[in-house]
Structures are given as C-alpha cells and as structure tokens.
User: Fold this.
Amino acid sequence: MRATFLHMADCHLGYRQYNSRERQNDFTRAYLNIIGVAIDKKVDFVLLAGDLFEKRAIDPLTLVHAINGLERLKEAGIPCLAVEGNHELAYFRDSIGWVRFLAERDLLTLLNPKIDGDQVGLPPCDGRGGAYVEPVPGLRVYGMRYLGSATAAVVQRLADAMGAVDRKGIEYTIFMAHAGVEGVIDRAGGAISHRELAPLRPHVDYLALGHIHKSYEFDDWIYNPGSPETNSLMEADWPERGYYLVEVDTEAEPMHRPVLHANPRRAFERLFFKVDACETPAQLVEACQGYVARQRRQFMGKKPVVELRLSGVLPFDRGALRLDEIVRMIEEQYQPLLCFVRDGTRATAFAVEDDQQLSRTALERRIISDLLERDNRFRARSSEWTKLALAIKQLAVSGASADAILEELERGRDRVVQGEELPC
Assistant:
C-alpha cells in the first residue's frame, strides 16, 4: 500500500496579532499556501491537527478564508481530516463549534472517539464524524480532540480500545491528536509524557500532533509540524516549522518518510542591545544606530516585525532615554511592518550608608551628591550641582516665590555650565 499525505496544525486563522489587520492576513496566507502545496503535490489526504481558528468566536471574513481553503481541497478531491484544538472548542452553551460547522458542510471530516465516563468507543466515521476513517484502502486514521489534563487517562483507554478493533486489511495506522509532548517547551498545557504515550505505540505507525507551535519529532513515530505563522516573539527564534509531507510505502523499511517543510511566513527580527557603555542619551542612540545598521546588513527579509530590547544598567536618568528616536531609526533601516522597542534596562543601584557621625545637613548633602554622580550629565561637577540643589531647596523652604526660585535656578545653572564655583 502506498499513500502520500500532508500534516499541518495550528493555523490560528483570525488572529489579529498586535491588532494588525496585515498580521491577520499573514495567518490566512500561510494557511492557503499549505493548502496550495497539498493540491500541487496531489496528496491523498490532509491532516489538520487542531487550532484551525484562533478563537471560538470568529468574524465572518475568517470563516470565509477557512471555507475557501477547504473548498479548494474538496474540488481537488482531497479529503481533510481534522480534530478540534483548545482554541476553537465550542462554548458550553453552544451546541457546535465552527470546526464542527465545517464538518456539517462536508468540507472536512471531524474525528473524535466516543467518550462516556470511563468507556471509550471507536465508532467508524459516518461521513461527517466518528473515531476513525480510511481515506486510502489499507490505511486508517484515528483522531482525538484536545482534552487537556484528561489526555493521559483517555490515551490509555484508547490504546485498549484500539487493540480490540478489527484491523483486518489495515497495513498502516495514523493517530491524530491535539496534544503536546512534555519537555518540548516549558509549562505547556495539554502535554503528556513519552511513558503515557507508550500504550499507543503497538497500534500506531504515525502519531500526528498539534498544539505546541514548535516543530519536533521523536522515535520515528511522533511528529509535530509547529505553527505555520509566528504567534509570539518567542517563536521567532525557533527552528523552521510549517507542515510535513509524508510518503507511505508499507513494503519499504521504514514504512514512512516524513519531510518537514517551512512555508513562507512574515519575517521577525529580534535585536538585543546592552546600554552599559553608553554614558549619555546621545551616545546610546548613536551606538544603537550602529548596532542596528550592522544587523540590518545581515537580514534578508522584507517588511518584518522588529523588536529591539534594551538591557543593562542605564547610566543616566531614565527620563532622558530617547526611545522615539530609536524607533524612527529602526523604521528607516528596516521599513518594518511593525516596530517595538522594549526598555528592559535598570537604574544604577543606589544606597546610603548609615553613618551616625553625620549631621542631618551633611547627610542631606551627601545623598544629593551621590544621586547626581549617578548621572553622567552631572558627574563631572557634582559638587557644584549639589550646592545649587541645596540653594534651591533652601529658597523653597523659606517661602520664596516660584519666580524667584526659577530665576535663581537659571542663574546657578548658567554659572555651573560655564565652570564657575558657587558659594557654599
């Protein structure tokens, strides 16, 4: 028996990332691109392992996009077999969700076992739904929707049920589920361990997973293609992902040859810049511009989403940080779709030693001087700036008018800048 199929998952249609209509369109483009590949390659069927949609409540345009892709498959005579993911499960108050609606329209076949308490049944597909279907003679596909924390317990009962099902004439078995494998990424909900998956191994040749957006495969039988588009900045650094094209030949060894392909997607550029060596706001902007220019020369994409994350110890007052200039500079260099500058810097640590010998006046002077020395703009003449600050403070305490305080501040500032010494 020979067959070819395409395995995809986590399309998340309708996701308006960063509230950007163009990013929402990117998710549709990725989905339709993979549909086009399935048609061009004339695969026997497509596996859609959950999360076709970003959320339960979708807008009409998102539904239209989903239908357009599935209608193209149907016109090409390629069945789409699907399971429901956690993002698209119907609300408790609703009788069906949108994926089931598509099944009712005969645009896909929705697979799921019959679960009644501790009992798990595996009825054959009746055309629109059931536990399994045989899209190619000799090849059987089972499916299971997202079950969250109940996944491991159900898998054990499923394995028992599969062992009891008649396998006469079945040469190759696929099990599709919206679930993850533990250890691929931290704190992933709906993930189960290799030990908990082991009962399926005697009955399953290809375990087709979705849910985790990072691509991975284990032991020549567990496969997860990852998300066709980048759902978060964290995903931008992950290896290539997209969809599997799988050739099955039950007379060969091994019986399948899955190849992971990366579909075209929006480029993301993550930049990291440490500010510690920049003594002034102007130096920071200049150094950052040089760094961004160097990174841009190595970047090959067009209209990316760009994130620059600043880190390190900021050697001047945070209020002088010119983020708007950095954003403009990145936009000039990259011509991005979207640009974000994240301020992850921290201020220089400041502490005052408890010295019982200092008077209140001396302690006040020392604190102000230490504060001014933290800022590179005032460090060189911190003693004179301290005198000025104390003089202004004294005027305020004595009840001087705002005009008098402002006049004294301007006069003192000019003298310090010109290098003069102020009276104590």
